[in-house]
Amino acid sequence: MECNCIKEWKFADPKIDAGLLEPTFEKYVGVEGSLIAVLQKAQDLYGYLPVDLLAYISHRTGIKPSKVIGVVTFYTQFRMNPIGKHLILICQGTACHVNGSADVEAAIRGHIGVNEGEISEDGLFTYNNVACLGCCSLAPAIMIGDKVYGNLTREKTVSILEEIKNKEASE
Amino acid sequence: MKVFVGRGSCGNAAGASEIFSMFEDSGCDVRTVGCVGMCYLEPIVDVQDGDGERRTFVKVDEKVASEIIKMVKGEANNADANSISKEDIDILKAQKRIALLNCGVINPDDIEEYIAQEGYSAVKKAVTEMTPEQVIAEIKVSGLAGRGGAGFPTWFKWNAARNSQNAKKYMICNADEGDPGAFMDRAIIEGDPHVLIEGMMIGAYAIGSDEGIVYVRAEYPLAIIRLEHALNQAREKGILGNNIFGSGFSFDIRIKAGAGAFVCGEETALIASLEGERGMPRLKPPFPAQKGYWGKPSNINNVETFANVPWIIKNGGTAYSVLGTENSKGTKVFALTGKIAKGGLVEVPMGISINDIIFNVGGGIKDGKEFKAVQMGGPSGGCIPKNLGDTQVDYASLAATGAIMGSGGMVVMDETTCMVDMARFFLDFTRKESCGKCTHCRIGTDRMLKILERICDGNGLKGDIETLEELSVHISDGALCALGQTAANPVLTTIRYFRNEYEDHITNKKCTAVQCKPLINFSIDEVKCTGCTICARKCPVGAITGELKKVHTIDTDKCDKCGVCKNICKFDAVEVL
């Protein structure tokens, strides 16, 4: 069922096409407890959850805005700011910590030139620290997209980023 | 000949996906298996000949893979150098595998391979030959206790849920493996998803549930894909669904992806999260067995717990209970990580000593360094020092040291690990993961972290240790759930066993493990330095200057104390002051 309110709803980010969420709303209409699933789908589609999109989700699902924002801010998976093309997850689990994840983070921060959660100038990278990727025997590890890179050193980390950069430049 | 490639998340990260494609492209009969647990040997490839004899090759890079391909095709035989060593085979043989029985052996994407290992025969036996009460009685005999951390008797929970009168009940699997340093649940789901499904089915039959939910961490995408696939196969085969094995018992399972919150490992928080809420724990009672998901009786067990169930039903509770100790029955999977030579997953009978696990199964400490301590039980557990290495691994003995069994994460530390920094690390974790409901936990962990941070920064004050101890008691008393109640354990155990390190930081402003950067400075020994320039070239921040064959110097203002120069110097000329 097409909802007429899409046309009236304005999003600050012009890249957000609310229509893409329609199948999700349809799937979960009347299904109690599906807020997290809707938010996960929305973040998959748009990369982040800006506040006006959350207001729209609240409007469409009938869930109070305070609850929507409460859930979004509770879980580490959700972010309200846009990210670079490649999201780097730096594992900060115990095994990675004792094997030098701080150095890996320093190398990444130094190379992309921004702090956690920010977008690098070329728009390619954002990094986030995460609790544990479950690849403890490869510590220290990072995950870019669906790929895990392990046994990292500063040099190896930088060369991984360079490789992605070069690939992007050639495309 | 058949080729098997270990393709868990960690195997893939080590390059198994690329190796797999090579075998595929060369026309070999190649299939995926899960993780066998020997992560230090990844990527691992097995080759099985016509007689069923299996040979294992380890650390298989592209070059070795092409040699194996030649061998499979009968063209040459030059892959022997990468055959698994006898020592490593012995490590595998020394284990007792129940939960990990099929991991690394069968293809997780093929239900027929699971069935060929007598898979789903246990649930068939349960639903066609046993009453739910008999199933619970068998689990009681086995002595199986919750493997997720609390160690609560499984039969007791099942019995409570069974006795709860309601037409609708839920069987929930906690696969929100949040303990940083543990990954057995991921390995089981990725390597043998059907064993989890079968375990849940047996449990559901026992409590009288028709609907199961697996709550999986979002950080485990491969586990979700494999489990989804396995569920579909089980449905197609008629194993999941209505009237299972003609018994009248009906059951199905769905997956719910978590959104990242450690506290959701707590039962009531997990239920809140399943209901789409903030994952905050609530007061018990009522227990989930009385009022759980949507107010209905619910039973929640961990992945590893479920993975033991089919074996117990097949072999009998007594066969399980003879393993382990008087009060801790059966086997336990441990994730060996940190400064360990042979890191990975091992499954051993309860009661084996910590030293046995680290030195016999784990090959000792990496790079010939000295064993200092092991963190057991993650952020809720504690650090057990070297001199307690003879401690038996069972629930009671570990609790006596101040640590806990937890989910089985063992992070091994050597002399380069600073124990104050470890305590700071864990408090940083619990402070971030505290849901904020209880004041003592929300604010107390923050206060403790601030104190630990200033100690690590060299600004520790006299009396800080005592304040930490006092706060620990308050947080433990004032918190509703296990996260808060155990948050101080890493601090308390490190103070108990490594008080001298705290005092060194506070009084002498020294970090003997050379980890706390504000407390250390690097300098170059003028006598030892040969002016080889390698440190200057490798320094990531350009803090080292010097000409060829002349003594180099470090600009302490620029230096970010990463230690690259010290590690790379062949003449041992970089000193730490």
Structural class of chain B: alpha/beta
CATH architecture field of the largest domain in chain B: 3-Layer(aba) Sandwich
Question: Rough shape of chain A?
Answer: elongated
The class by helix and strand makeup of chain A works out as alpha+beta
Oligomer: heterodimer
Strands of the widest sheet of chain A, in order across it, are: 2-1-3-4
CATH topology of the largest domain in chain B: Rossmann fold
Tell me the fraction of residues in β-strands of chain B, as a range.
5-15%
**How many strand segments of chain A?**
4
Helix content of chain B: 40-55%
Spatial ordering of strands, largest sheet of chain B: 10-9-13-11-12
The first-to-last residue Cα distance of chain B is: 59 Å
Integer tally of domains of chain A: 2
Radius of gyration of chain B: 26 Å
How would you briefly describe this protein structure?
The complex is a heterodimer of chains A (171) and B (577). Chain A is of the alpha+beta class.
Written description of the protein model:
The complex is a heterodimer of chains A (171) and B (577). With 171 residues, chain A is of the alpha+beta class. Chain A folds into 2 domains: 5-74, Arc Repressor Mutant, subunit A (Orthogonal Bundle), CATH 1.10.10; 86-170, Glutaredoxin (3-Layer(aba) Sandwich). Chain A has helices at 5-8, 22-28, 35-46, 51-61, 65-74, 94-98, 101-112, 154-170, and strands spanning 86-91, 125-130, 142-144, 147-149. In chain A, α7 (101-112) packs parallel to α8. With 577 residues, chain B is an alpha/beta fold. Chain B has 5 domains: 2-84, 3-Layer(aba) Sandwich (Glutaredoxin), CATH 3.40.30.10; 111-321, Rossmann fold (3-Layer(aba) Sandwich), CATH 3.40.50.11540; 331-414, Roll (Ubiquitin-like (UB roll)); 419-508, NADH-ubiquinone oxidoreductase 51kDa subunit, iron-sulphur binding domain (de novo design (two linked rop proteins)), CATH 1.20.1440; 521-576, 2-Layer Sandwich (Alpha-Beta Plaits). Chain B is built from 23 helices and 17 strands. In chain B, β15 and β16 form a beta hairpin. The longest helix of chain B is centred in the C-terminal third of the chain and has 20 residues, at 489-508. Chain B starts with a strand and ends with a strand. The chains are: A alpha+beta (171), B alpha/beta (577). The interface between A and B is large, with 46 and 60 residues.
